[in-house]
Write a structure and sequence with these properties.
By secondary structure, this protein is mostly helical. The longest helix has 32 residues. Pfam families: KH_KRR1_2nd.
Length: 196
């Protein structure tokens, strides 16, 4: 059976295993280390905590059991859903001719199309609505400075346009004065060939 101390240790191991605190293998490992430390007389007075392994418990997620809410039991079945024929009888479509039914469906389809097209048109037109400007917020001095800036810009643009026109006029020199025409070159070739 062993000593009373041994029985206490076994009881602790079993209880920890049942409570899922520590696996018995780790307890047995600790007991083996303690037995080896007890043999050494120099360590008899010291604390053995630094020699014992610290096993950290890892939290493993456990699956939660599926608990479905039970509906209240009723001995009577639910009311029967109306069939397509019943719905037609209520609305009066059942007694309509096929032409009238198709005309009604066509009319409903056209109504839906017109609603959707109007909605799309509104969305498209919303993109073209200009944002509101705060013209009342500008002071007279700001307006005058804006007018001055616009006048300066127009003057500078007119000067640049004038320079551009002058430079184009200089570039548009007649090319014919620099390039010999085909007739002149042919006549010169004939003269050279006849003189040879």
């Amino acid at each position: 059976m062993g000593s009373f101390k041994g029985l206490k240790q076994v009881r602790k191991i079993v209880e920890d295993c049942i409570k899922n605190i520590k696996h018995p293998v780790y307890h047995i490992k600790e007991l083996l280390i303690k037995r080896e430390l007890a043999k050494n007389p120099a360590l008899a007075t010291e604390s053995w905590d630094r020699f014992l392994p610290n096993f950290k418990k890892k939290n493993v997620k456990q699956k939660k059991p599926n608990t479905k809410e039970k509906k209240q039991y009723t001995p009577f079945p639910p009311p029967q859903q109306p069939s397509k024929i019943d719905l037609e009888l209520e609305s009066g479509e059942y007694f309509m001719s096929d032409k009238k039914k198709s005309a009604k469906k066509w009319q409903e389809k056209l109504d839906k199309q017109s609603e959707k097209s109007e909605e799309k048109k509104r969305k498209r037109e919303a993109a073209f609505v200009p944002p509101k400007e705060n013209t009342a917020g500008l002071s007279e001095s700001a307006k005058s400075t804006n007018d001055n800036e616009i006048a300066d810009i127009t003057k500078s643009l007119k000067k640049k346009a004038k320079k551009f026109r002058n430079s184009e006029a200089e570039e548009n020199v007649k090319i014919e004065s620099y390039v010999a025409s085909n007739e002149e070159s042919r006549s010169k070739k004939k003269r050279r060939s006849s003189s040879k």
